[in-house]
Amino acid sequence: MATVSFDKNIVIREPEAIERLVEVLSSKEAKPINKKLASDEAMAKGEELLKQCLSHLKRY
Description:
Layout: H1 15-26, H2 40-58
């Protein structure tokens, strides 16, 4: 898979969004990862579904 590095400015204008971002960034709470969703099997299934969706788009 190709990766691209780039710089992009992010502009947040809503005060509620700014407050939420600060809250998330300053939080020390670690959230558990759902290992079922991140399993190799689940990732392979997701990749296959993505390939199917993209193959349908190529026809049009």
